[in-house]
Structures are given as structure tokens and as C-alpha cells.
Design goal:
The protein has 133 residues and is of the alpha+beta class. It is built from 3 helices and 6 strands; from the N terminus they run αββαβββαβ. Strands 3-4-2-6 form a 4-stranded antiparallel β-sheet. Strands 1-5 form a two-stranded antiparallel sheet. α1 runs antiparallel to α3. The two termini are 29 Å apart.
Length: 133
């Protein structure tokens, strides 16, 4: 998948996030998740101010994601954003592509991408090819 805007990102940060996504996929596989299992991906980002958090969240919500924004209680004016995908097919390549999307979107809105989480207890196994319903 070609994502526009990757050239504006710090290549070292992008590589680091790709390594983290690879590690997440390895951990999911160790816990029994198979390629094309279905689940929801949670993405976490940080915004320097409420306007940036609101605009980034809105850009995902309009595409069907759920979004939560909360101000950090550490005395700063920063906000934590949690984005939750629809039920999607989980694949290693899908996670890597989603890193690119999250990083570009975060950069565009002046935010920082922190990483993913997948609730393994809610993951559904892939449907057999012969099952039509």
C-alpha cells in the first residue's frame, strides 16, 4: 500500500515503529492469532493541544473508527488519543501499513504516534474458505 507523506517523516522513527509492529505481530502469533483472524486494532497517539487531538480523531472517526480523547493528568496540556478500528482482518502487512497511515496522520496534525494494541481475548479465528455465512 502506497501512503503519501512518508517522505516528511523521520526515517528512524518510522523504522522503530515498524519494529514495534513486527514485535506485536510476533506476540499475537505466539498467543494463537493466525493470519486473517478478525479483531480490532487500538492505536494510541499524543497531541500537544485539544484542537490537534480533535482534528486527528475526527479524521479517523469519519472513516468508521471509534475515538476517545482525554487530557493527561500529569500537569501538562497534552492529550491522549485512543482510536479503535472496526472489526478487521489482522495481518502482519496490515499492521505495517497502518503504522505508515498513523505516522503520516500524526505528523499532519502535529501529534505523535505511540503504538498499537490488540485485545487478544476478542480476536476471532479466520473463517474457513468454504463457509459462506
Amino acid at each position: 500500500m502506497e501512503v503519501k507523506g512518508l517522505e516528511a517523516l523521520d526515517p528512524d522513527e518510522l523504522k522503530a515503529q515498524h519494529r514495534l509492529a513486527d514485535a506485536l505481530w510476533s506476540m499475537l502469533v505466539e498467543q494463537g492469532v493466525r493470519d486473517r483472524s478478525r479483531g480490532r486494532i487500538e492505536g494510541f497517539l499524543f497531541a500537544p493541544e485539544e484542537g490537534a487531538a480533535a482534528s486527528l480523531t475526527a479524521s479517523f472517526v469519519k472513516h468508521g473508527w471509534l475515538g476517545e480523547v482525554e487530557q493527561l493528568d500529569d500537569g501538562s496540556s497534552r492529550f491522549r488519543i485512543k482510536l479503535v478500528s472496526n472489526l478487521v482482518y489482522l495481518t502482519r502487512q496490515g499492521l505495517l501499513d497502518l503504522v505508515d497511515v498513523m505516522m503520516v496522520s500524526a505528523h499532519h496534525h502535529g501529534c505523535a504516534f505511540d503504538g498499537f494494541q490488540v485485545d487478544v481475548s476478542a480476536v476471532q479465528p479466520p473463517r474457513p474458505w468454504w463457509r459462506f455465512w
